[in-house]
Amino acid sequence: MSKSKSSGAVKKENNIFAENKKAYFKYEFLEKFEAGIVLTGSEVKSVRAGQISLAEAWIGFINLELWLKKANIAHYKFDASRDYDPIHDRKLLLHKSEALRLSGKMAEKGFTLIPLKVYAARGKIKVEVGLGRGMAKYDKRRKIKEKDEKRALDRQLKRFV
């Protein structure tokens, strides 16, 4: 048997550092994209430590470039720099053709881009971006009702199996 020289930490592919669960309730997503994100070294360490929040985050266009806005990445505690704004805008990396197509979709009424997840893939930090449309209140109620009915049905089936 050969021993690995690992330090004991198990690295899993596609670690999820943050997830925007409320977005799935507020929006109906038509498409999802994977985008890279431009971060400094201390921001990468902070994200890998799980110090990121997508609660109020959204994505906007500036000169046909995607920017992640209002995402909170906490200051890395071992970083010596003191002038750090945890909520500054961060550039997202996407192919130009995809960015052009998304800007066209954004021009249509009712569409918005929302960050859904921040995760590690192939050694890089990635952001899953969803192109969504806001749900009406009655759609949200219908979704809750279907979820409750499914839960009740599963409970009944579990009792008889």
Topology readout:
Elements: E1 16-19, H1 21-26, E2 27-37, H2 41-48, E3 52-53, E4 58-62, E5 65-69, E6 72-73, E7 90-93, H3 96-107, E8 111-121, E9 124-134, H4 137-160
Antiparallel strand pairs: 1-8, 2-7, 2-9, 3-6, 4-5, 5-7, 8-9
Could you spell the SSE succession in H and E letters?
EHEHEEEEEHEEH
Shape: globular
User: What's the CATH class label?
Assistant: Mainly Beta
The structural domain count equals: 1
What multimeric state do the chains show? single chain
What distance separates the N and C termini? 44 Å
Report strand order across the widest sheet: 1-8-9-2-7-5-4
Structural class: alpha+beta
The radius of gyration is 20 Å
Give the CATH topology. Small Protein B, Chain: A
Largest sheet: 7 strands, antiparallel
Low-confidence blocks of residues: 1-13
Could you name the CATH homologous superfamily? Small protein B
Counting DSSP H or I runs of 4 or more residues, the number of helices is 4
CATH architecture descriptor name? Beta Barrel
Beta content:
25-35%
Using DSSP, what is the number of strands? 9
